[in-house]
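Field log, afternoon session.

UNIT: design team B
ACTIVITY: writing a sequence onto a fixed backbone
BACKBONE:
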C-alpha cells in the first residue's frame, strides 16, 4: 500500500495485509483485516500481486472505490486457468498494471485497454559493490524456488556434463522446495553427482552472498520467466549466468558477452569448460555482467515514482 509522497525505502512495506500468516487470503478474518488495514493506513494507491489476493482486492475495491488500484504481474505466463481468469479480472478492474519486464507486458497485456495501463517496474533490489571475478572455478549456484518452471533437472544434467571432466565441480542450490526436491536428489544420485550437488534449503541474502562469492556460474534454465530476479542479482554480483532465452532474460542476457545461452547440455558444458580454461575471457564476461544493470533505478525508487504518478492522476 502506498500513502502520500513517500520516497526510497519508506515507500515499501512488508506488513501483511491479512494481519497474520495463519489466516488464508480467502478467509473472512483476512478480508476483514484487509479492510481494517486500508482504513488505518488510508493509502492513495493499493497494490495487489498474485491471483490469490483477489478476495482482498474485491472487498477493498468495493469499500474504497476512490482509491487507485494496481495489479502487479510477475510472469509472462499464468500458472493455471484460475490464475488466468482472476488475474485478467483484477487487471481489468485496476487503474494501473505494473509488470516486472517488457516480456511480461508483451505477453500478458494483449489488448490496447490493458496495455494503456501497463508500466514496467524495475526489479533491481540493490546496488551491490561487486568486483569482476578475475578467475573462474567450476562452482555453480542457483537461488530461487525449487519449482518445475525453473527446470532444475536441466541444470543438474548440465552440471553433470561438466562434472564428468572436472572432479572439483560443485553445484549449490538455495531455495524452498516447491515439489521438486526429491526428484532432483534422485536425479543427482542417478547421474553420480549426489556428493557434489548441495541443497541448502531457504536462505537469506547473507547465505546467497557467501555462495555467490565462491561461485562462478549461475544456472537458470527455466521454461518461462518474467524478469528472472535471481539472474538479475547474479549478474550484479559478477557471476556468469547460463540461461534459456525466455522472458526478459532473452533481452538482457547477451550470449558470449555477459552470459551463456543454453541449447543442450553437452554443447553448453563445452562452452563452460572453455571459459574455465580461459580466465581472461571469464573475467571480461564477469565485468560485463556487473555493468548490465549499472545506473538502473532500484525497485523502491521505481515503485515510489510510479505510485506518485498514479496518485496524481
Amino acid at each position: 500500500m502506498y500513502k502520500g509522497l513517500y520516497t526510497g525505502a519508506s515507500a515499501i512495506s512488508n506488513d501483511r495485509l491479512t494481519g497474520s500468516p495463519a489466516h488464508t487470503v480467502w478467509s473472512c478474518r483476512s478480508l476483514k483485516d484487509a479492510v481494517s488495514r486500508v482504513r488505518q493506513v488510508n493509502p492513495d494507491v493499493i497494490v495487489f500481486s498474485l491471483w490469490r489476493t483477489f478476495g482482498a482486492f474485491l472487498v477493498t475495491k468495493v469499500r474504497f472505490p476512490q482509491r487507485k488500484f494496481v495489479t502487479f504481474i510477475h510472469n509472462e505466463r499464468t500458472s493455471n486457468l484460475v490464475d488466468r481468469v482472476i488475474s485478467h479480472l483484477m487487471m481489468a478492474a485496476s487503474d494501473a498494471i505494473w509488470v516486472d519486464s517488457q516480456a511480461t507486458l508483451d505477453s500478458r497485456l494483449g489488448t490496447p485497454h490493458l496495455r494503456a495501463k501497463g508500466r514496467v517496474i524495475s526489479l533491481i533490489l540493490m546496488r551491490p559493490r561487486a568486483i569482476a571475478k578475475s578467475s573462474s572455478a567450476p562452482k555453480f549456484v542457483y537461488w530461487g524456488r525449487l519449482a518445475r518452471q525453473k527446470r532444475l533437472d536441466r541444470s543438474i544434467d548440465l552440471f553433470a556434463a561438466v562434472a564428468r571432466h572436472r572432479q572439483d565441480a560443485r553445484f549449490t542450490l538455495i531455495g524452498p522446495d516447491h515439489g521438486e526436491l526429491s526428484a532432483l536428489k534422485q536425479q543427482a544420485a542417478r547421474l553420480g553427482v549426489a556428493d557434489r550437488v548441495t541443497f541448502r534449503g531457504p536462505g537469506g541474502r547473507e547465505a546467497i552472498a557467501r555462495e555467490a562469492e565462491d561461485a562462478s556460474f549461475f544456472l537458470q534454465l527455466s521454461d518461462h520467466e518474467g524478469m528472472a530476479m535471481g539472474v538479475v542479482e547474479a549478474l550484479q554480483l559478477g557471476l556468469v549466468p547460463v540461461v534459456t532465452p525466455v522472458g526478459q532474460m532473452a533481452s538482457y542476457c547477451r550470449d558470449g558477452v555477459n552470459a551463456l545461452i543454453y541449447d543442450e547440455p553437452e554443447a553448453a558444458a563445452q562452452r563452460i569448460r572453455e571459459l574455465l580454461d580461459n580466465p581472461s575471457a571469464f573475467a571480461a564476461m564477469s565485468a560485463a555482467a556487473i555493468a548490465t544493470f549499472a545506473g538502473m533505478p532500484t525497485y523502491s525508487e521505481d515503485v515510489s515514482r510510479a505510485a506518485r504518478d498514479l496518485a496524481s492522476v
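LOG NOTE: Residues 50 and 100 are 13 Å apart (CA to CA).
NEXT ACTIVITY: expression trials, pending approval
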